[in-house]
Amino acid sequence: METNLHFRLKQIVFLICLLFWLTYSFGQKTIRLDSCGINDACEKAIVISNVVSDQAFVCIEGCNLNAGSSPFNNDCGIGDFPTVWFEVLPDGNATLMNINVKSDEFDAPTITLFHLITDCSHLQQVGLTQSSISCIVGSNGEAEAIGSNVGGNEIYYIAISSLNSSGGHFNICVNTISQASACVTSAQIQITARSGGGSLAGPFLPGETVSVCMNVNSYTAAGNGCQWFQGLIPIFGNGWDPSSFDANGQPLNGTINGEPFGLPGNGLYSAATWDWFTNVGYHHDNTFFQVGDLDGNGTVEMCNLLYDVDCPNLGGITGGCCGPCWANAGDPLPPGWFAYGINGTCPTLGPPPTVDWGDGNSCGGGMGPWHFCFDLTVRDFPECLSDPTTSDLTLGFFTTADGETGSWTGGPSVCALDQPRKLTLPMMCRKVIDLGTEELPDACAGSEFHYEINEPGVAHWTWTVEPSWAVIDTVMEGDNGYVINSLLHSQQEAPETVTYIFTGQDTSTQNTVIKKVEFTMWSQIELSFFTPPNIHVDSIVVCSNDTNSVFIILEARGGTGNYDYTWWPYGNNTPTIEISPPFQSTIHIVTVTDDFCTESKSINFIVDQNCVINHIDIDNDESNDDPKKEDPPPGGNIMNNHIDTRSASAIDAESIRIYPIPSKDRITVEWPKSLLNPTQLFIYDTKGIVLRTLMIDPHAVNRMELDISDLASGVYIVTLHSDQKVKSGRMIKM
């Protein structure tokens, strides 16, 4: 009896070992059990082996409970929450990697992918999916990264963590694809806006509107028999509210490159027109494509066995017959946008797309882009809790060429290898408590924004700012009571509304709490100094014995424009000041304020004791004149501006003759004959205000007579502008 019992035990042990060997060799479920936390460092990564391109997913169990965090952090918080590591060595054929993580023990798995450069201290982060996302944050216990670019025979590390959780057990599944897209060379799913505020990566809130673009950025017809892009079949998770779609399943108010769908000629090329069709057939047999109501919500979806670990094998789809008109187009695909209007080899005019070619113009590459854009609304609370699918915010799309769905006579299309795009957005399916918008006083760019976010019942906040460029911040989260100190930044002169959008969670009800803070930001005041005639200066140098006053003109821009001026040391309150001799070296400081902004600027006023001003005595006797330095007519004089503005070295004084001085109703302005291309003449008052602007006749001699009878008695500055120089002088009106 004992012998028989011993023999039976041996049989049982043998069968258990055999079962384990068979599971390891041929199964997809579990080929190795992970003890929690043993692989919480890159150097201790568990190897996921036997990943062969174009084969089924390899899945193993994992656990990050009690694991340590990563020594470095990223947007998925791998430096804050328990993180475990896995190693994958794709075969030499691999070009794409697909990763899926599921857990029943925590809500938000995260995926980060790294390429090994030399060792674990030299890792390069890999962009996930064709959208090159830095890391994936899942929801409802699942995270997925589809179609990430990898290289064959290269080692990769996958870091799995649990956002805002201590973690638990999970399954991780990996496979690789040998051939990337043959026709669509670049495509992505892009979230362009959200009504609830916050990061465009989510999590998204019940009832909010999300703006989506499904982009085919580039398409080639080279190497595939000159097939053109013809169809985009969108896939939507059941977490999107049915009110987002019309009766045929099309998102409402969508556009193709900004044009409404159905508008004749809305395609990129020739007469191509894009519209929504519900009964387009697929021309060829395909065992990987599966079509059916995959989430049980009454609508037809599509999946690919090679890319989706959850894709059920329903037997594939069966093609039709025959080109070029395809009376039997094949099994119908889910509804989608298809192009028609460019008549192919089939004489029948489209629609349907089956009898036409796609949207193209050559047999080469570089075609595109196409942007399929629309808005979707997230299911409201508590509807999003109805079942696990009603919080599924999956977005995806398949593409087809006219060799798959149009008037084309070839065999099975190589474009069927184009990978589907898929992105599952995280959702926070909780009731949203909106605390409203708090209006704050206006602020000025360049100043600091100070605000304490403090509301009862909320332990922690995250926030975003719109527009994002309005602040220069790296910290966008904090505990309740956190004080924000942000430097405000403007990119325009016009005022900008700045909105802080805070998101928190009520610790007692677990409801989501939203609060907005809003204020108007004015552009920073910018100050510049000028001297007549509108010459920008940073410092002014005058001769110690100069007897002419110097005018400093201040130009202010930005802010509200309602400026007040204060000059130091003289206390002037005008935008222009006059400095009269005798001069002293001084730093002049002006402070400009408006309703919300303040700005100060200084200019260095330097007196040069070594330069000499040679004044010309008027003797009215021309017999003793040097012919090269002729006096003006009797009663005239030469008035000179002896200012060296340093940053305006093109000023050439001592060159304009203005006579008679003093003048009554008319003056003559004369300049050297050597001056090339004089263009304009300006007359300023002593405040630097332009009173007269005159164009110089290019055929005129080197003088100009002016009527000044309308000017009041006083001193004026006259400037003459040429291509390269500015010449100035002074005029006295009696």
From TrEMBL:
**Highest taxon of the lineage:** Bacteria
InterPro entries assigned to the protein according to its UniProt record, in alphabetical order = Secre_tail (IPR026444)
Where do the record's region annotations for Disordered lie? 617-642
Query: What are the Secretion system C-terminal sorting domain coordinates in residue numbering?
Result: 658-728
| Pfam family for this entry, one | Por_Secre_tail
NCBIfam families with a match to the protein in the record = Por_Secre_tail
Name by which UniProt lists this protein: T9SS type A sorting domain-containing protein
